[in-house]
Amino acid sequence: MAFQYKKRDAGAWEKRASQQGGDYQGFIVDEAKVYTPKKGDNFVRILPPTFENADHYGIDVWVHYGIGPDRASAICLQKMKNMPCPLCEARARAERGGDEDLAGELKPSRRVMVYMLDRKDEAAGPQVWSMPWTLDREVCKISRDKRTGQVYAIDDPNEGYDLSFEREGEGMMVKYAGIQLSRRPSSVDEETLEYISTLPLPMVLRWREYQELHELFAGSGMEQTAAVNKPVAPVSLARRPIAAARPATPPLAAEEPPPPEPPEDEPPFDPVPARDPPPRPIAPAAAAAAVPSGEVTGKSRAALLREKLAAR
Ligand SMILES: [Zn+2]
Questions:
Q1: Which domains does the chain have, with CATH numbers?
Q2: I need a surface site. Which of 64, 123, 236, 263 has the fewest CB within 10 A?
Q3: CA 210–ligand 1 middle distance (angstroms)
Q4: Is residue 72 within 8 Å of residue 258, measured between CB atoms?
């Protein structure tokens, strides 16, 4: 019998086209594009909050990184909702059992999630950046004139200020330095604001229930392997080649010693990098294609996003 080709619907193609790559399981919904600071100079504009009762441009998020063989990341239910969190429970068990490495690895990390524009790639549109909270603190510091007390509302869409900073190093050695505000105010276009109003930051979070988190973690056998035989997976080694040289970093790989301090004391500009932006085998150009530009389709990004959300 002759082979019969079955046509698949557009949704199936779209799903494949917008996937984040590999088996990566992140804590940000697929509709949002994730920003990763580039090595060298970065020029970004932090966008204003578009959610109710905002007292900051970003939202605080607690994230467990490096969960299971997929190195998934997930929002901590304990810290965010005061609900039971299987990863925090596993951490408590590890502490009781004296496994400090595993306990450190399971510690949630605090990030500040913002919407921003990459001024070097504005065509990419608004992106979500989960920055280390220490970097956010530094941004707030330089947004205020120490002598006069004047505050520069950097996220003001009409007369805000771009930020520049340098990302140095790779993997766990990443540092952010030379953070500066642009000396001149600038604006952000309407379409950008419309887009982030359609998908406010709280909607960007991908919540997982207890059971799903438990499966991500326990299904991996991580608890045993990590305790007995580290380094665990070649994947984690490949991504963090120099981890062993850095005893004081916050984080999560099994081969690392736990940080000596509580999370609030983590050094400035010393984030848990490499994880937060998921590894994305998908090329930037292809990723951009997932949200076609207005010129091509005649529809604004925000309109496309609304359709996508409605179909969800
Ligand atoms: Zn947790």
A1: 24-283 (3.90.198.10)
A2: 123
A3: 10
A4: no
